[in-house]
Amino acid sequence: MAYLERNQGNLQQALTQIQAAVQIIEDLRTKIDSQELRTSYFATVQNYYKFYTDLLMQLHKQKPDQGYNALALHISERSRARGLVELLTEARAEIRKDVDPKLLAEEQRLLQLIDAREKQRFEIVNSPKIQDTTYADLVKELQTEIDDLLNQQKELQTKIRTTSPKYADLIYPQPLTLSQIQQQLDQDTVLLQYSLGKDRSYLWAVTPDSIHSYELPQRSEIEAAAQTFHKLLQNPSNSLVSQRGITVSPTGISKSTNIEAALKLSQMILSPVADKLGNKRLVIVADGALQVIPFAALADLTKAGTKEEVNYQPLLINHEIVHLPSMTAIATQRTALKGRNSAPKTLAVLADPVFSPNDSRIKGKSQNTENDLNLSLDESALQRAADNLNLGTWSRLPATGEEAKAILQLVSPKERLQAFDFDANFNWATSQGLAEYRYIHFATHGFADPKNPELSGIVLSLVDTAGQPVRGYLRLGDIFNLNLPADLVVLSACETGLGQDVNGEGLVGLTRGLMYAGAERLAVSLWKVDDNGTSNLMQKFYQQMLQSGKSPNVALRDAQLQMWEQDRWRNPYFWSGFISQGEWR
Fold it and tell me: pTM value?
């Protein structure tokens, strides 16, 4: 009815109908106990919220003084990351406490089975055996078994939640209104919230005492430009500041096709607000393909030059940038962590695990194996890369050890904990001792599974000192069971900020597991980052935090600025892949 009324030009009548429709959706959603089913249902009705938002913005065009744009922002907020908000609320309520121990034991059994079957499937798929019909059939059988185990795990999680003594008393927070959003901001911060739509998209720019809204191009145009820019950023030899024929300077670079590609996306999504941002902190709540764009690498349009001489200067130069799934999520997290004291000790680091039985660190192995580290760091040029999935092995990351040792030197021995080589294992990563540290740093491979986010994870030591296989994948299900009341968790690995893009939830991956586990802030990556570049960035990052006393978000930006100012690392491929998520205060 709302669609029909809108198409006949009856916007107020359409508004009445869509309000009623969305209320039905909200009522239905609360009756679904399974978080998985609740999320999947909500994904199917996102078009209602998009329609609602668009209708309010059309009314705002007609009557700009009636506050319709503020209502549209609220509806946009109602449509995103609701599952995450509810998870954070359950974490604060310690909903798993006092649950039947048999249920928790069964959950651990399922997690171990899932890990074992997925590891077996992974090894076959990435070996010559996959050419054998017998093994190909085995892979199909394993995949069927994994899917069944995942379903069992989801059903068990629902049972754990609903049988908890605290479940019935849970009150989930409502999505924030404009005034509540403004209360979460400070005078040095601007919120840029995006909603991408089929016919047109919208941007809201919000400060503690103002709101401005803008119409942007349709989703397909923005996402095409975003995908081009994202691809450009991931190519170290064909990016914004490649030194082949381009004059590089700290303030800008000369015209090129690459720069024009970067400017295109910036002009689409930032041009209405470019001259209103000053030097303020930018809090980004993105949508669609914009979720995997590091806004720090977007072009500052106030420094873009003229048509005759186009310059590229990244937003990083003048802005600290934080990425959030929603403003309601940060408000919920702040409520949950209010009054929490920082952990007593400073830094825990896991680095340079042992992935292969052929590794030279295994007793009796030749020092000339293919995994030996006699190669220089430059010669190795290894990436913390999920593209190793195509190789059937995880390559050792030589720079992670150097990175970790340099970071640890910034902290006194009594304030730090370290796990290298065989000690960088599953038991260490899941130990209760990590709860004593403010900063937790994982320097190893990471991978995102866009189909089954539960299988995403961090790669730890896969063999013991005798070269025998051990449990070595810290998967999303394991992370949800951790207790990490850390000020900051750093995933110095590949694609750790990615995940399955679920309508209404955004990227579902490792980040939400870590937030559930108690992390106040995260530093994660958006692509297959360079091993040596990451090592350089992380050392600068921790120097800014631990020696200069800067907040994690400011420290990351300053480290990235130092990279930008060096010819070798100026290419955004090396520094912009890491973003800050969570608390900025």
Answer: 0.83
Residue 131, SS3?
A: helix
Please give the residue that has the higher pLDDT: either 492 or 382: 492
Phi-psi region of 480 (alpha: psi -120 to 50; beta: other; left: phi over 0): alpha
What does the block give as tokens for 115?
């890990």
579, two tokens: 């973003």
Kind and range of the H or E run holding 350:
strand 345-353
* Number of alpha carbons in the 13 Å side-chain half-sphere of residue 482: 31
What is the maximum span of the chain, computed from C-alpha positions, in angstroms?
Answer: 80
As a whole number of angstroms, the distance between CA 241 and CA 435 comes to 41
- Cβ(18)–Cβ(54) under 8 Å? no
Strands 473-475 and 457-459: antiparallel
Total length of the chain: 585
Query: Can you read off the two tokens belonging to residue 504?
Result: 């209404």
Q: Are 197 and 219 in contact (CB under 8 A)?
A: yes
Highest mean pLDDT among 129-143, 171-185, 372-386: 171-185
Write down the H helix ranges in 63-132.
68-78, 82-92, 101-125
Determine contact, residues 21/15, Cβ cutoff 8 Å.
no
| DSSP structure string for 366-396 | -TTSTT---S-HHHH--B--GGGGGTTSPPP
Q: Are 216 and 205 in contact (CB under 8 A)?
A: no
For residue 299, the SS3 value is: strand
Strands (E), 217-316: 248-249, 252-253, 281-285
Q: Hey, what are 253's tokens?
A: 């670079």
Instruction: List C-alpha distances in Å: 300 to 72, 267, 525.
Output: 27, 9, 22
Pairing mode of beta strands 201-207, 210-216? antiparallel
247 with 253: CB under 8 angstroms?
yes
Residues 6+ apart with CB under 8 A from 502: 39, 40, 43, 508
- Structure token pair of residue 430: 């899941």
Q: pLDDT, tens digit, for every residue of 347-389? A: 999 999 999 898 999 876 644 433 333 322 222 222 333 333 3
Q: Give the residue with greater pLDDT, 229 vs 398.
A: 229
> Identity (one letter) of the amino acid at 52?
Y
What CA–CA distance (Å, rounded) separates 408 from 248?
34
How far apart are alpha carbons 458 and 350 in whole angstroms? 11
* Mean pLDDT score across all residues of the chain: 84
Distances (CA, A) of 413 to 347, 351, 408, 543: 10, 17, 8, 16
What six digits make up the tokens of 53? 């938002």
Residue recorded with tokens 């590891």:
119
